[in-house]
């Protein structure tokens, strides 16, 4: 099982994303705003209010009212889950002329290939394999040509298509090392020059999920794309101070975080155990598309394009097929796990 590497200031277990349910259940009086028309949100609101009432009425018994509300909350967020849409994101690209406003990146270069072409080739194969091998699942590409798509538009495509899972395909690369070389002078006054030397020591895969410092951005996207969809709004806005909105947003974030780690672990296991490749594990990083896609998401660094062996592998038909098959097997396991948990 992989663990996330975080900075010393953020050494938190993923399990610590706990909502202080009791605070809301016991001290907040919930009203019923008109915007909460959806049955699932209404059921959640009723459960919370009911739990508060039960806690007051039967406090002489050792009754844990919050347990009922927590169970209802979990049901609300995962009710009837089916994995139907996977967003396949081919990293980088060639910025088109007159490109819309946004952030673009051309990606890394190897000795004979570049990242943007490798990621597109893998993504196209992955889309076909998902739709062929996983029944009932559609795969949506964020780009299907060499033209780049802005970070902002990639997240929009994912949310507009109501994706259930976001897989971003990339190639890794290490920056050049700066070394100093003596070029003359005397023993007392030597002369040196600095040189840039390619660092080709990187090898294997790496998995990234969004950094916790971008939680505010993630929450905004969850409210706009998940909570708002659950509320059946008629042009009205959600009240950001509504305790139900707060609780539901936190629960979605907690679950998406947990599921992001899960799918990263599953892909890693397939690549390491089945393909026999090296892995650098799972890390968190402040990546725009991961925190703005309101769904479980992972960025897969498929290999180091500036490492000769990895570059050969990434450009080979065999290597790309292995990567695609490992990801498909992992998604299949993920789908079975998630849908099985809904029936229990």
Structure description:
With 344 residues, the chain is an alpha/beta fold. It folds into 2 domains: 4-8 and 83-343, Zn-dependent exopeptidases (Aminopeptidase, 3-Layer(aba) Sandwich), CATH 3.40.630; 19-76, no CATH class. The protein is built from 10 helices and 9 strands. Strands 1-8-7-9-4-2-3 form a 7-stranded mixed β-sheet, sandwiched between helices. The chain has a two-stranded antiparallel ribbon with strand order 5-6. α9 (308-315) packs across α10.
Helices, strands, pairings?
Blueprint: E1 4-5, H1 21-27, H2 39-57, H3 65-78, E2 85-90, H4 115-133, E3 138-141, H5 151-160, E4 165-172, E5 177-185, E6 190-197, E7 205-210, H6 215-230, H7 243-274, E8 279-285, H8 288-292, E9 297-304, H9 308-315, H10 317-343
Parallel strand pairs: 1-8, 2-3, 2-4, 4-9, 7-8
Antiparallel strand pairs: 5-6, 7-9
């Amino acid at each position: 099982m992989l663990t996330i590497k975080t900075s010393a200031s953020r050494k938190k277990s993923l399990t610590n994303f706990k909502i202080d349910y009791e605070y809301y259940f016991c001290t907040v009086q919930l009203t019923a705003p008109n915007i909460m028309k959806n049955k699932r949100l209404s059921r959640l609101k009723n459960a919370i209010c009911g739990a508060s009432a039960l806690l007051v009425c039967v406090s002489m018994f050792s009754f844990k009212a919050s347990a009922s509300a927590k169970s209802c909350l979990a049901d609300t967020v995962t009710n009837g889950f089916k994995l139907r849409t996977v967003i396949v994101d081919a990293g980088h690209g060639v910025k088109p002329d007159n490109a819309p406003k946004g952030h673009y990146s051309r990606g890394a270069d190897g000795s004979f290939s570049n990242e943007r072409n490798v990621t597109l080739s893998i993504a196209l194969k992955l889309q076909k394999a998902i739709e062929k091998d996983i029944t009932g699942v559609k795969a949506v590409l964020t780009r299907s040509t060499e033209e780049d798509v802005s970070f902002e538009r990639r997240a929009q495509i994912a949310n507009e298509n109501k994706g259930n899972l976001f897989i971003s395909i990339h190639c890794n690369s290490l920056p050049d090392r700066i070394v100093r070389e003596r070029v003359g002078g005397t023993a007392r006054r030597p002369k040196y020059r600095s040189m840039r030397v390619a660092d080709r020591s990187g090898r294997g895969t790496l998995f990234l999920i969004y950094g916790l410092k971008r939680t505010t951005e993630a929450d905004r996207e969850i409210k706009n794309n998940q909570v708002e969809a659950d509320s059946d709004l008629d042009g009205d806005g959600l009240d950001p101070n509504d305790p139900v909105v707060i609780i539901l947003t936190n629960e979605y974030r907690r679950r998406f975080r947990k599921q992001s780690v899960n799918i990263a672990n599953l892909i890693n296991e397939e690549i390491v155990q089945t393909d026999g490749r090296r892995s650098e594990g799972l890390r968190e990083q402040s990546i725009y598309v991961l925190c703005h896609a309101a769904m479980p998401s992972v960025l897969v660094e498929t290999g180091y394009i500036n490492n000769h062996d990895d570059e050969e592998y990434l450009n080979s038909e065999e290597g790309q097929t292995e990567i695609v098959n490992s990801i498909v097997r992992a998604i299949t396991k993920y789908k079975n796990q998630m849908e099985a948990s809904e029936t229990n």
